[in-house]
Specification:
Largest sheet: 6 strands, mixed
Number of domains: 2
Structural class: alpha/beta
Radius of gyration: 21 Å
Strand content: 15-25%
CATH topology of the largest domain: Nucleotidyltransferase, domain 5
CATH superfamily of the largest domain: Exopolyphosphatase. Domain 2
Distance between the termini: 29 Å
CATH class of the largest domain: Alpha Beta
Order of helices and strands: HEEEHEHHEHEEEHHHHEHEHHHHEH
Number of helices: 15
CATH architecture of the largest domain: 2-Layer Sandwich
Number of strands: 11
Shape: globular
Length: 382
């Protein structure tokens, strides 16, 4: 969700070409390792195209160390499957590819391009699979590279890669990772000491699909009071049944000590709930804290504005940076979307908030770059 130093690429295609003359290779990136290579991973997702710049430590030959040195996204809504969103997504993919290749001087063989599982699921559902192949073919023509590899990732692959890219190795086999997306939720865990196969966890409920279900029930009364009432009916109805069933079938309760949440809901909740921890990529949280947060979103939403939050912070903190991040959250999520996000998060957490055994919950704020990072890591040298 953070856009770091790459935000300027969103303003114009011309940026890609003019910036070629401004900076030598990688000087605008803050690299961590003494000897390293920079790779780019570009994902065409359901709602937009995302790019992550990944620094790989060249001093290690196995289990490569890596660091995210930049990421950005362009909203294009590809899964609407219209000529306009097709063109917008193709332009976004091409522009990010050229930004990595020309501006950051990442060689084309270190730029990985993939289609996310969300796109594949939507295309299969809407009988639009041919659109994906047409999109890939159009991109290859655009970059004059008929042999360019553009993988289409399925849900199980994405869940596995997300776990490998987000969860530290020390917690690899004790953590259940759940990514709450816009249209659905997916994740899983490794039940044995083997990362080749993941026990997949899936829900048809995501932040936007949950909000949409509540909105359909408003019946002309668009007040926040009625929305909150209808949202609870959605969450305690079909959503709750599906969540309970999915968790029970997964067997994750008995197998996992830690439950980590990624996706927009986790990022937004962590940012508004713990603004002072803005630089922490992972934030521990309790069920009670998220429940209090949800209630305050409903009763006192104005208190979560960037101005209200910043003025209460310790003077030693970077208030400008924190305020900017909070403003970004409030741009992406309005009150209704935030209630849906935190409400769905609570419903899932509730399945793990047992009486006799307490799980440790975590909110992962940079999870959107996790699976693409692991994908790049695993494909180096292939």
């Amino acid at each position: 969700m953070r856009n770091y130093c790459l935000k300027s690429i969103l303003f114009s295609v011309l940026f890609t070409f003019f910036s070629y003359y401004l900076l030598p290779a990688q000087t605008s990136l803050k690299l961590k390792f003494k000897r390293s290579y920079v790779y780019a991973g570009i994902e065409v997702g359901s709602k937009g195209v995302k790019m992550s710049l990944i620094e790989m430590n060249s001093n290690t030959s196995q289990n490569l160390d890596y660091d995210i040195v930049g990421d950005t996204s362009i909203n294009t809504d590809f899964i609407s499957f219209t000529p306009a969103t097709f063109r917008a997504s193709l332009n976004a993919l091409y522009n990010l590819y050229e930004t990595a290749r020309v501006y950051y001087k990442v060689p084309s063989n270190r730029i990985y391009t993939v289609i996310s599982s969300g796109v594949k699921i939507s295309a299969d559902k809407d009988e639009k699979a041919k659109w994906i192949q047409a999109f890939i073919d159009s991109f290859k023509i655009r970059v004059h590279d008929p042999s360019r590899k553009v993988d289409v990732i399925d849900a199980e692959q994405e869940a596995r890669l997300s776990h490998l890219g987000i969860v530290p190795e020390s917690k690899r086999f004790t953590t259940f990772l759940i990514d709450i997306g816009s249209g659905n939720t997916k994740g899983g865990y490794f039940p044995n000491d083997n990362t080749d196969h993941i026990r997949l966890f899936q829900l048809t409920w995501g932040t936007q699909s949950t909000a949409n279900a509540a909105i359909k029930r408003l019946d002309g009364d668009n007040s926040i009071k009625n929305y909150a009432r209808q949202l609870q009916r959605v969450l305690t109805g079909d959503a709750d049944k599906e969540i309970t069933y999915a968790v029970n079938v997964s067997g994750a309760y008995n197998m996992s000590d830690n439950v980590a949440f990624s996706g927009g809901a986790a990022w937004a909740t962590a940012t508004l709930l713990f603004p002072e921890l803005m630089n922490n990529p992972v934030v521990p949280v309790t069920y009670d804290q998220v429940e209090s947060f949800y209630n305050k979103l409903y009763t006192d939403y104005a208190s979560f504005s960037d101005k209200q939050i910043v003025k209460k912070l310790d003077p030693s903190l970077d208030k400008n940076a924190i305020g900017k991040e909070i403003k970004t959250v409030n741009t992406v999520f309005d009150q209704k979307a935030m209630l849906a996000a935190s409400g769905l998060l609570l419903k899932i957490m509730r399945q793990f908030a047992g009486i006799h055994e307490k799980k440790q919950f975590y909110l992962v704020k940079n999870g959107q770059v996790g699976w693409i990072s692991a994908y790049v890591n695993q494909n180096i040298g292939k």
